[in-house]
Amino acid sequence: MKVLALYDYPASPAGLATQGNLLHRGLEELGVDVHSANFESAQEKEWYYRWFKPDVVVGVGYWGHTPHLVMHPQRFGVRPVPWLVVDGYMANYKEILDALPLVLVTSKWVKNVYVRDGLKGDNIEVLPVGCDTKNFAPREKNDPKVLAVREALGVQPDEIMILTVGGDATSKGAQEVMQALAMIDNDVPKWKYVCKVWPQPRTEHQNLIDLQLATQLGINQKVVYTSNVVSRNFMPYLLAACDIYAAPSRLEGFGMIQVEANACEKPVIGIKAMGMLDTMLHGQTALLAGIAQEIRLREVTVGDESGYEEGHRVIFKRGRTVDYRASTHDIAEHLKELLTKPDLRRKLGQAGRKRAEENFAYRLVAQKFINLVTERLGIS
Q1: Residues 48 and 76 sit within 8 Å (Cβ to Cβ)
Q2: What is the average pLDDT across 193-213?
Q3: What are the angstrom distances between the C-alpha of 53 and each of 19, 38, 196?
Q4: DSSP 120
């Protein structure tokens, strides 16, 4: 089998790039002839089509990337297999995606969203995102690299570190976590809440709003926001430095960082919705908060990126859920349990590590990809 993988290549620390890179690594280690190219580079893609002659092109992205991931290889007679995440209402490309023999998505929830938006679904298979369980692994508290992370963040040795990582912290549920921490602050051991976000214009504004909330709640001295650019080499040590990983996300098609936290033997606080229903087990590897609110839209405005004129209005017959809010009371209860029960932290973390190794190790994901392509496309 000859595979060309299309993603944000060379791989950046971002989720989609890591998703593609780990698939490449897994396929290569399993003996598959595989190359990678940037999904937007028409010239380089065509170069691979002509000399490498791949049996299949797997492209990582969302429905709006269909021209790059599907239509471009089709023009050269190459079979595309898009591996899609969710990003808003799927306004276009239904016929193109429905005509494919195989479409991959990252979770059952993502599949349900695509079916909700009009895809037939019988050609959609779930392929989870892989995890590098060798690098994302348990580390001793006294590891100098782990200690250095905590010291740099201003986390004291006697403080329990709670961590959230994301493009921005708000979408990962940081405001709900802060509200929950304010509710239990007087009843738990000393803690520090660290939010690692990526530097970009929208997060700078959102960070200010989040920190204003922390001030209003009276916990701003215990909340740390950091927005430096870091590599994937740093992330395992950041996760190792925390005691609890908290991300009751408002929108989460898979939750790669939650799986990585589990792989580092960290208990996770999440939400009983979306991709986390595939990745986390409530009471076993994580504590999942209930849904307090669903944010629904009755209409959307789309434009050129969706194949319409700018400002095209789409009205839904029924409101469509676009994101969620986790119960702050549930989050508070779960945080209080984990902050006061080190044995529970250890138990959930160890179970999370075992589940990550058995279900999400990147070589297992690569093997599942091979099996799906073989069964659906007859390629061996």
Answers
A1: no
A2: 90
A3: 23, 17, 41
A4: -
Q: Which two tokens stand for residue 307?
A: 């194949």
The string of pLDDT tens digits covering residues 253-285 is: 999 999 999 999 999 999 999 999 999 999 999
- What is the Cα–Cα distance from 5 to 239, expressed in whole angstroms? 28
CA angle 246, 161, 19 (to 5 degrees): 45
- Phi and psi at residue 201, to the nearest 5°: -55, -45
With beta carbons less than 8 A apart as the criterion, state whether 119 and 113 touch.
Answer: no
Tell me phi and psi for residue 206, to 5 degrees. -65, -35
Extract the runs of DSSP E, i.e. beta strands, from the chain.
2-7, 33-38, 56-62, 80-85, 103-105, 124-126, 160-166, 191-197, 223-226, 244-246, 268-271, 286-289, 291-302, 312-326
Helix, strand, or coil here: 57? strand
> Please, what is the angle between helix 15-29 and helix 256-263, to 10°?
60
- pLDDT tens digit string along 290-340? 999 999 988 888 877 676 788 888 888 888 888 999 999 999 999 999 999
Q: Phi then psi for 292, rounded to 5 degrees?
A: -90, -30
Q: Which of 171, 152, 147, 136 is nearest to 226 (CA)?
A: 152
Fold of 144-290+327-359: Rossmann fold (3.40.50)
Q: How far is CA 113 from the centre of its chain?
A: 16
What residue ranges of the chain are covered by domains with CATH 3.40.50.2000? Answer: 2-130+361-377, 144-290+327-359
The superfamily CATH assigns to domain 2-130+361-377 is Glycogen Phosphorylase B; (3.40.50.2000)
